[in-house]
From TrEMBL, chain A:
Keywords: Cell membrane, Membrane, Transmembrane, Transmembrane helix. The keyword Magnesium does not apply. The keyword Cell membrane applies. This is Beta-methylgalactoside transporter. Pfam families: BPD_transp_2. CDD domains: TM_PBP1_transp_AraH_like. It is a multi-pass membrane protein. The chain crosses the membrane at residues 12-33, 45-64, 76-97, 103-122, 134-153, 173-199, 266-297, 309-327. InterPro entries: ABC_transp_permease (IPR001851). Its main location: membrane.
TrEMBL record, chain B:
Belongs to the ABC transporter superfamily. Residues 8-247, 254-508 form the ABC transporter domain. One of its GO terms (molecular function) is ABC-type carbohydrate transporter activity. Keywords: ATP-binding, Cell membrane, Membrane, Nucleotide-binding, Repeat, Sugar transport, Translocase, Transport. This is Ribose/galactose/methyl galactoside import ATP-binding protein. One of its GO terms (cellular component) is plasma membrane. It comes from the Bacteria. It catalyses: D-galactose(out) + ATP + H2O = D-galactose(in) + ADP + phosphate + H(+).
Length: 334, 517
């Protein structure tokens, strides 16, 4: 190609809108309150975002594959309960499973991830075999999962008391640090790295994009669409399970109300981060920026003393703006 | 005949779309109380002309007169109010509502009490019943539309047209989804309507029907008018000759064919869908290009997609290289060395937002993952790049980079990317469904060249095509289907378009020697 690639300002704005908005937010908040630009604030925001990042990574698989998932939040709730109930100290008062010895921190994490995968498989089967539209299938499973977690939470002798007395090893996952970096942030970044590798470097990732981009074409090209749908829902379930465990480790507690609304935040982060609602498009970096943007808004607005009620107004506007932009991005190419 | 009997007159209608002149000074005169058949090959411009008459398209030039008065329709509703109605080939009734609501939709009778318009159910029912009685249609106006058979849906649609006071009713392939008994029912209603002075414009490929029902026949070819004749002066042969009469030009690469041993053998294949293909048997040889001709609704695509595992079959056997095979899904077919370039490039071909590279390697990467990973987890970027580049070069695909989204390429280049996708899997049997539809002449020639090369390498090629010159220019043999049946197989060198057209529009049945030559 001999023609030089011309800088197209409008295209640049469209392509990097999310990063520019994030930058603008940081600049505005810093101008009002210069202390905002510090390592500790940065660390706080990352720590607060970690659980949301893991949920959003799971959700991203579903959105890229052209499907939808509303059950994520409640799955976080159920798995936080399960993780907390298995992570209590041997001597905790009001122990959920009386007589259970203190388990290594990895056990509750793996069990809650396994539970997440089970419900992911359930979602996948309902969507691909019963052909229930994903939006409704997962609305249904969301309710079921909340029911299960309420039942679990209410089990004697716990009787709907918030779970506490978690073992130190487990709590460290949420509050500890290695070389000054919070463990929970390391976990979230590791998940991001794994997801990035899986989506961009493996055949599976390419097939997920293909199914989301054009399901019929993927099928004709020999991709097992059923397999892909089952895998995406299972990976999402594993992410939700991990997020639930981290949430209870971070807060040293768990109730059945945990995770409520996380699925909508995750979907919003994906969309704001450049995933197409129609499927087939999305990047790990974009979704990461999407999560961070929402946390910068809530953290930053509080930081400069604006009523927290304004946060939702701003978040809502950003979601609408992002989708309006997305629609234009694809409409212009048709 | 005097002029007062003319109800619809279209004079010198021209209509262009970007790059195509769809209609070139076409005229049509329809008389009151007659059935006027409109005939021509696929793409002759029949539908375009009718869409102009029905207000869906605005002609670039020409005049439309209804009962001598010049009209310019804004839209379909305007056309219906002025007396022109159209029954589309694909009906779109509101299946969840009842029959009478479907008829009166958009103009439901109402009583005004206060500020509210209340639906007058009783009047709607009575009006519908009166309408049906008049046409001798026996359907309960309160029945749900979804419960009606295709033929009855069509009758409701016709009644709806009559309720608008239609003077002209256009019927586009009205019998394509009807059984023989239902066709009789339709014809009875048509005769009743013409007796009341309504004119019918009847588009169909089925010549026996045309000759049976119509009074006059207008024939079109390549967007131009061939002529208009009284039906009694025409025979099937005459119609075919006038529909296809065109000269051949040299648009195909030269090739010597070396047809080898039989490779794909299909026996008595019958679709799981009773309205689709029945009892199809054919053999495809190595090094052969087999053309598959037929009209819209011949079930050619369905047949090929079933062989490829995309649609279920009820019975029949498929053998590849002498061994019986079971193909349940495209993965099976691909592993057996088959490739299918589908008809709808947008719907089932390209993945619009993915790059050219992703689109090229898609099928091969899934079928032969090891080539890309060497048994490890990660894909080799180099292999993907090299594979994509190989076909970008050999098929001269015009794209700025490999990473360009395929949706930004022209139709012809998209098609070449999809061909590359399949070539990469090194297929033994390449099935192409309308491979040159909607692409420019240059790209067409490149696709023909590729087919020729494949055949020269001893691969088998099947090409579904609705373009006669392409069928005759490329095929070793031409298989023709009609309404789900195999109506004949012709030698590609000697076949004439008259023969193909005749087979495509009439299925005589195997018992009467359906296989010619």
């Amino acid at each position: 190609m001999t023609t030089k690639k011309k800088f197209n300002g409008k295209q640049f704005l469209v392509d990097y809108a999310i990063y520019l908005i994030l930058l603008a937010l940081v600049v505005i908040i810093t101008v009002i309150s210069p202390k905002f630009l510090s390592f500790s604030v940065f660390k706080d925001i990352l720590m607060q975002s970690s659980v949301r990042i893991v949920v959003a990574m799971g959700c991203m698989f579903i959105i890229i594959s052209g499907s939808a998932d509303l059950s994520g939040g409640r799955m976080v709730g159920l798995s936080s309960l399960i993780a907390a109930s298995l992570a209590q100290q041997a001597t905790a008062s009001l122990k959920f499973w009386p007589g259970l010895p203190e388990l290594p921190a990895i056990v509750p994490v793996l069990v809650s991830m396994a539970v997440g995968v089970c419900f992911g498989v359930f979602n996948g089967l309902v969507v691909s075999k019963l052909k229930v539209p994903a939006f409704l299938a997962t609305l249904g499973s969301q309710m079921m999962i909340f029911g299960f977690s309420s039942l679990y939470f209410n089990k004697a002798p716990n009787n709907s008391q918030p779970l506490g007395g978690l073992a130190k090893g487990f709590r460290d996952l949420g509050g500890g640090s290695i070389a000054g970096i919070p463990i929970i942030v390391i976990i979230a970044l590791t998940v991001m790295l794994l997801v990035w590798v899986m989506l961009t470097k493996t055949c599976l990732g390419k097939e997920i994009f293909a199914v989301g981009g054009n399901l019929e074409a993927a099928r004709v090209s020999g991709i097992n669409v059923f397999k892909i749908q089952m895998i995406t829902y299972s990976i999402a379930g594993a992410c939700y399970g991990l997020a639930g465990a981290l949430e209870s480790a971070r807060t040293s507690s768990a109730t059945s109300a945990y995770g409520q609304g996380y699925e909508l935040d995750a979907i919003a982060s994906c969309i704001v981060g450049g995933c197409s609602v129609a499927g087939g498009v999305g990047t790990v970096g974009g979704v990461f920026a999407g999560v961070i943007i929402f946390n910068v808004i809530s953290y930053g607005l509080t930081f400069i003393g604006i009523s927290p009620y304004w946060q939702n107004v701003v978040k809502g506007l950003i979601i609408i703006g992002a989708v309006a932009l997305d629609v234009r991005k694809y409409a212009s190419k048709k | 005949m005097d002029n007062s009997s003319i109800v619809l007159e279209m004079t010198d209608i021209s209509k262009s779309f970007p790059g195509v002149k769809a209609l070139d000074k076409v005229s049509l005169t329809v008389r009151r109380g007659t059935v006027h058949a409109l005939m021509g090959e696929n793409g002759a411009g029949k539908s375009t002309l009718m869409k102009c008459a029905f207000g869906l398209y605005h002609p670039d030039e020409g005049e439309i007169r209804i009962e001598g008065e010049t009209v310019r329709f804004q839209d379909a509703r305007d056309a219906m109010d002025k007396g022109v109605s159209m029954i589309h080939q694909e009906l779109h009734p509101i299946r969840t509502r009842n029959v009478m609501e479907n008829i009166w939709v958009g103009r439901v009778p109402y009583k005004k009490i206060g500020p509210v318009h209340w639906v007058d159910e009783k009047k709607m029912y009575e009006d519908t019943r009166a309408l049906f009685e008049d046409l001798e249609i026996h359907i309960d106006p309160r029945q749900s539309m979804g419960e009606l058979a295709a033929a009855h849906c069509q009758l409701v649609e016709i009644a709806r047209a009559v309720s608008y006071g239609a003077k002209v009713i256009i019927m586009d392939e009205p019998t394509s989804s009807l059984t023989e008994g239902e066709v009789e029912l339709l014809f009875r209603i048509i005769r009743k309507l013409t007796a009341q002075g309504v004119a019918i414009i009847y588009i169909s490929h089925k010549m026996d029907e045309i000759l049976q029902i119509s009074n006059e026949v207008t024939i079109m070819r390549d967007g131009q008018l061939v002529g208009c004749w009284p039906a009694e002066e025409l025979t099937q042969d005459l119609i075919v000759a006038r529909m296809v009469g065109r000269k051949m030009d040299n648009r195909f690469p030269p090739r010597e064919s070396h047809v080898g041993e039989p490779w794909l053998e299909v026996e008595h294949l019958t679709s799981a869908n009773p309205h689709s293909f029945q009892d199809i048997s054919f053999t495809l040889h190595k090094g052969e290009i087999l053309g598959l001709g037929g009209l819209v609704g011949a079930q050619r695509t369905e047949l090929m997609e079933s062989i490829f595992g995309l649609r279920p079959v009820a019975s029949g056997t498929v053998r590849i290289g002498g061994k019986p095979v079971k193909i349940k899904c495209p993965q099976d077919a691909i592993q057996l060395g088959m490739a299918l370039l589908t008809e709808e490039r947008r719907a089932s071909g390209i993945i619009p937002m993915l790059s050219v590279q992703d689109n090229v390697v898609l099928a091969n990467q899934t079928a032969h993952t090891r080539q890309y990973t060497g048994g490890r987890l990660f894909l080799s970027e180099k292999k993907r790049r090299d594979d994509a580049q190989q076909y970008i070069d050999s098929l001269s695909i015009k794209t700025p980079t490999q990473k360009t989204q395929i949706q930004n390429l022209s139709g012809g280049n998209q098609q070449k990317v999809l061909l590359g996708r399949w070539m990469l899997t090194e297929p033994e049997i390449l099935i192409l469904d309308e491979p040159t539809r909607g692409i420019d002449v240059g790209a067409k020639y490149e696709i023909y060249t590729l087919m020729t090369q494949m055949a020269a390498e001893g691969k088998c090629v099947i090409m579904i095509s609705s373009e006669m010159p392409e069928l005759m220019g490329m095929s070793d043999r031409i298989m023709v289907m009609c309404e789900g049946h195999l109506s004949g197989i012709l030698d590609g060198k000697t076949a004439t378009d008259e023969q193909i057209m005749m087979l495509a529009s009439t299925y005589q049945g195997a018992a009467e020697g359906g296989v010619v030559q």
